[in-house]
Amino acid sequence: MAATTTAELKRSALGMAAALDPSTMSGEAAAQGVAELALAEKAIATARMFLAVRVAQTDAWRGQGFASPADWLAAKAGISVTEAGRQLGTAKRADRLPRTKEAMRRGKLSPTQADAVTDAASVDPDAEDELLDAAANDTTKGLRDLAGRRKAAATSSRERDERIRRHRSLRRGTDAEGAFWARLYGPGSSAAAFEELIKPFEELVFRQHRAAGISSTFENRSFDAFFAMLAFLRHAEARGPGGKAAAGEEPPPSAPCVAPDRSMASDPPDPPGPADPPAPEAQAPPMPPHEDAPSGHQAERAPHAAPMWRPPWAPEEPVPLPGKLPGGSNVKVIVRVDHAALLRGCTVAGETCEIAGVGPIPVEAVRQILRDDAFLAVVVRRGRDVVTVAHHGRGLNAHQRTALEAGDLRCTNASCNRTVAMEVDHRVPWAVDPITELHNQDLVCSGCHRLKTHHGHAFESGTGRRRLLPPDDPDHPGRQVERGPLAGRGGGGPSSMTDTEVDALEARIAADLARKGRPVPERLAGRGGRSSRPDQRRPSRC
Fold this sequence. Notes:
Blueprint (H helix, E strand, L loop, with lengths): L1 H18 L7 H32 L10 H9 L3 H14 L3 H8 L5 H11 L6 H10 L2 H15 L2 H10 L2 E6 L5 E6 L3 H24 L5 H22 L56 H6 L6 E2 L9 E2 L12 E6 H6 L8 E3 L3 E2 L2 H10 L3 E6 L8 E2 L6 H10 L14 E5 L9 E2 L3 E5 H9 L3 E2 L8 E2 L29 H17 L27
Helix pairs in contact: 2-4, 3-4, 4-6, 6-7, 6-8, 10-11
């Protein structure tokens, strides 16, 4: 029966694909077709995965020249052997998770989503419903991040860390086009030290790109920052202990700490000529050769010139690196951990211990950070609360910004995966509620912030990650009945608050103004304060 059913499905699918002509369809019809085919594709992929498990169980793959069931499935499905093995493992785990298996059969989970759900739910069954909800409402990246956290919390961090340490590796090579690639694999505790080292250079490269008008991705800048960091550390080693130069002389105060390496040629500050070798006691470490020798003019002023490096984005245009690297919030490394886990020394199911934006680390690593490293921010949580401080400035103070960034580094828009260049948005505009509190802040990427501020988009009511709705969406807050002095005051569109939230906020504003002896606008009279002249605050900029 199954063979007949699959044969009929094959004929129907091939006939539909042959007859389909997208050029004759409207955009709306094409979008609906994509959604329907995606649902069918996920359901069919699920059926194929369970059938492949049966093939593996019955050894029906043998005698066809394949080394394993994964090799056989890879050849039949046109996927890699690694992906085939992953799908076989997903189907086997799903047999022990009835709700996940049913969701897969209904086309609600793709093979990638099913792999993330089954991998974590097999270790922490109590997380299955949360993972299925994330699969339905979050992005695939968000689901994978959640699954990783739940799996890490439910397993022994000590055993996991030891296993990862045994398999630590640095792999590197070149691809068919000659492009260099590298992959680091190791314990999460090493990520804190790496992030602390590279973040100042990422910020430095970002500023240099912006000053030069260069359009680049975060991955571009991370590559440049990595090699800038290597050059910086190499120069520091060449200077010797205590920061002294090899010749025993200090460079000018403006000289940046950077030296060339094999990937970045530079103009050395004092290149020796063949007829004038340096004295033995002043001999510097040998420098790598490069094709561009400094001119006579450069050589004359080199003792007082800042060392230059040839950045990967423009090797023909040397630029200086400052001796002092950027600081501030953009170079901060945040570690978040549950209070109970920190006291206990390990996590249990549902608890968190991780580097924000990177991933889980052992609790013992956090304890080590607290003892030894004053430059990493450790946020200790009790339940969902990180910190409840508030102040009357427009911007966040340092503690609030750290707490906000520790919550989730991704854009608040549920459909957006961006985690870099985040901007802080007041959920209720500061001009309306001049008190800066954590529960009124969202992290939004620049693109989504622009849509909200200038193009009428608005977040749906609530907190946390949620949908960013266009002006013509039926659920857009602007289509709701406007009421009260706060109606129509949201960033780039009407307020996204419910009526109950509006009432509570108006009462709180009136009470706060009255407590501080400030005039209460007439429209807020009777909500906790005394009336006065109309409010003259400027309109929102959020």
